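Lab notebook page, bench 4
Experiment: in silico fold of construct C2
Operator: M.H.
Input chain length: 95 residues
Purpose: comparison with the prior construct
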Amino acid sequence: MALLKYFKNLVCCLIQTDLYQPSSSIVSANKEVENPLDGDKKPRRGQYTKYSDEEKAKVAKRASEMGVTSSLRFSKKEFSGRPLKESTIRTWKAK
């Protein structure tokens, strides 16, 4: 523990007196690390598929009467080109 305190103080003193200069390899490595971090932080998600309240009610009613799987098959034919998952139908049915 005593050595750690000694080295921390030594580095602080060197930085303050401008005697400490990082090597060129450290500087170039730091620049390479910073470059990818400059872009977007989080990838963007695609657009949500929107369904009207009437469409949701129609699918949920069929799910209540005939089951979720049957409702999913029915909705795939009716809403072609608009993806719909079984879990979404279950959520609409529960509401």
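Observations: Residues 65 and 71 are 9 Å apart (CA to CA). The chain has two domains: 2-27, 53-94.
Next step: discuss at group meeting.
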